[in-house]
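Lab manual, section 2.4: Encoding a predicted structure.

Procedure: take the sequence of the chain (105 residues), apply the prediction step described in section 2.3, and record the output as structure tokens. A sample record is shown.
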Amino acid sequence: MFDPEDYTRGAVVINTPGAIAALRTLFEVIWASGADLVPANEDELRPEESELLQLLAKGLKDEAIARQLGISIRTVRRMINILSSRMETSSRFALGAKAAQRGWL
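Recorded output:
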């Protein structure tokens, strides 16, 4: 049974053709308007990446950054790893230094 108060419990099965068609159309519209996960130009930051760098520069821990951004700790760490790979750095300090050199901080 689905519990609207606790979204982690239960499921909803939809088998009505009209509802399925409407949800599929909604998905296709949202999908078409979506942005790439990684910018085409590596010198560009997505807004959430910029905010992440700002919070890292303030010395916040992963848990605090996750709360601030409304995402999981795992997502924070993944974003840091992606930025580190893009900027070819192996530490948070080096990531901050390169971000400052690029004018991102």
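Check your result against the sample. The radius of gyration is 19 Å.
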